[in-house]
């Protein structure tokens, strides 16, 4: 973002965003989910994204609530209170907002590989390095819901570098988090043939199946181990 754009460049940005939104470009969808105050209307009703909507997004990205406020500030020669990119990974803030139950769908969609796309289109697609880093960071969040949502994303967007961190969540104090950790390790649907079930992981899951405090977690670990056990070992 530049601090003092011209009205022409702002109009060009809005027009470009509207075109990208019409084509369901992931980057455009992510910007709408992040900045448009009435994003739910597009998510639920599939209402057309108009130029006035694009102008709202551009205004919010520059630190204003409304397009007219931004244009007024431009004519007055005022500095724009732009939202500057943080040196810290910006997706840390998105992951932190997963703790807000009523907004969880919105922020969770942003953390996918293809924001705004249905689950099947996203499944197995790699996320960016920054998103992966933020999702791993989220496994250690104090809010349990953030932890299990991040595990869900790491299952849908698998990366071997996350496995040691997922293994740690097998000892999480919250049973639901442990259940999701088992699933992220054992489910091969999104892993395109690259299973996480190494000898170490299987050993850890065997321990969970025998000693976890939760009957549900023990049962699920036993189930996935039985599903992945070689036929000649039965």
Largest sheet: none
The CATH architecture of the largest domain comes to Alpha Horseshoe
End-to-end C-alpha gap: 61 Å
Q: Average pLDDT across residues?
A: 84
Structural class: mainly alpha
Compute the number of structural domains: 2
Strand-residue fraction?
A: under 5%
List segments where confidence is low: pLDDT < 50 over at least 5 consecutive residues. 83-87
Short description:
It contains 14 helices and no strands. The protein has 234 residues and is mainly alpha-helical. Helix 1 packs across helix 2 and helix 13 packs antiparallel against helix 14 (215-228).
Defining key terms:
234 residues, mainly alpha, Leucine-rich Repeat Variant, 2 domains, 14 helices, 0% strand, elongated
Q: How would you summarize the topology of this molecule?
A:
Layout: H1 7-22, H2 26-35, H3 39-45, H4 51-61, H5 67-76, H6 91-96, H7 104-110, H8 119-122, H9 129-138, H10 144-156, H11 163-168, H12 175-186, H13 199-211, H14 215-228
Describe this structure in words.
The protein is mainly alpha-helical and 234 residues long. The chain contains 14 helices and no strands. The chain has two domains: 70 residues, no CATH class; 143 residues, Leucine-rich Repeat Variant. About 2% of the residues have low confidence.
């Amino acid at each position: 973002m530049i601090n003092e754009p011209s009205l022409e460049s702002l109009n060009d940005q809005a027009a470009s965003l509207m075109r990208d939104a019409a084509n369901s470009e992931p980057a455009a969808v992510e910007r709408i989910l992040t900045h448009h105050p009435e994003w739910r209307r597009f998510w639920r009703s599939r209402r057309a994204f108009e130029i006035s909507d694009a102008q709202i997004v551009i205004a919010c990205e520059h630190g204003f609530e409304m397009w007219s406020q931004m244009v007024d500030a431009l004519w007055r020669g005022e500095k724009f209170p732009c939202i500057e990119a943080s040196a810290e990974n910006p997706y840390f803030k998105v992951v932190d907002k997963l703790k807000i139950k009523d907004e969880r769908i919105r922020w969770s969609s942003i953390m996918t590989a293809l924001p705004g796309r249905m689950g099947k289109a996203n499944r197995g697609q790699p996320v960016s390095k920054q998103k992966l880093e933020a999702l791993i960071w989220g496994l250690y969040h104090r809010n349990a819901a953030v932890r299990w949502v991040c595990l869900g994303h790491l299952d849908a967007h698998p990366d071997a570098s996350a496995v040691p961190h997922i293994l740690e969540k097998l000892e999480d104090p919250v049973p639901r988090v442990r259940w999701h950790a088992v699933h992220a390790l054992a489910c091969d649907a999104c892993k395109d043939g690259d299973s996480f079930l190494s000898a170490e992981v299987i050993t850890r899951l065997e321990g969970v199946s025998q000693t976890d405090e939760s009957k549900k977690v023990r049962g699920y670990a036993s189930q996935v181990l039985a599903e992945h056990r070689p036929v000649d070992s039965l």
